[in-house]
Amino acid sequence: MSDRVAAPTPSNPLPAATQPQAQAQNLLTAQHVASQQSDNVAHALAGAGGGLLSMALTYPLVTLSTRAQVEKKKAQSSTLDAVKRILDREGIPGLYAGLESALFGITVTNFVYYYWYEFSRAFFQRTTNKARLSTLESMAAGALAGSATVMITNPIWVVNTRMTARKREESLPAAETYKNAMVSHQAPGTVATFMKIVREEGFLRLFAGVLPALVLVINPILQYTIFEQLKQALEKRRKVTATDSFLMGALGKLAATSITYPYITVKSRAHVASGQGSKEGMTASLKRIVREEGVGGLYGGISAKVTQSVLTAAFLFAFKDVLYDATIKARRRIALKA
Questions:
Q1: Cys-Cys with 46: which of 30, 103, 151, 324 at CB 3.0–4.6 Å?
Q2: What residue spans do the Solcar repeats cover (predicted)?
Q3: Residue 132 has pLDDT above 70, yes or no
Q4: If you compute the radius of gyration of the chain from its CA atoms, what whole number of angstroms results?
């Protein structure tokens, strides 16, 4: 007679000796899934914290680049002149217009992005049985994470762009009368700006610029892919430090932002557009800007944006690694006490 065990059926379940093995296997699988979920959350929390800290440190550059993006080329000035104009008309708070919504936005954006990136990466690793992803697999994971992030967080960034651009800026008084006019020109808060858009322009205006934003999914894909490939190459030689992460994050963001900047300009203008301009498509907007302002119109504020993006990414990856390590250590301490 054969010693082979028959396949289990409802009337012929697994032999008693095999059932514990199956239960143990199921338990290990459940523990692995729980561990992976916990690791995804750790990455998401670290990314959210790193994004919040890096955004707070570089926000004046966000203000300068955003205002330059939504201005026509002929109205643009040098970065120093833009700083002086904002300080004269609005004081130091003008450089931080929309900071509240930006911090909320970057926290949610990074949490969603890094959670879905790690989730997608783990999925690819399970299906391919590989410890490390190829460049294409990393880009696919980034595309899934980026697309989910855009659809969830676009309303936050529409509100932030409106607050940062401050379309009322041209009517603001100069420094000597600014203080007397503060009450009448008080900038609306995040909730007030959100409600104003919904009330006056409709709920769908919160999704203005979604198409160029989806195209811009390639930005973090390029950034993170470059970062991951550099990190993997360095890990073969030595342990990666926070300084290494800072420099590699800066290089990744420099390349990504330089390549995708025209779409950043189109997205920002879509966020503040009104009237017929709000119905203009991405391709039509690109053509109009080139026709009216030349190719240079697509790159308004690029120096401030590249500087801000590079610094933000560098700080983000440095902070993220530190926060991730701290999160894992805290989780282990809690597990030991439990």
A1: 324
A2: 38-123, 133-233, 244-326
A3: yes
A4: 25
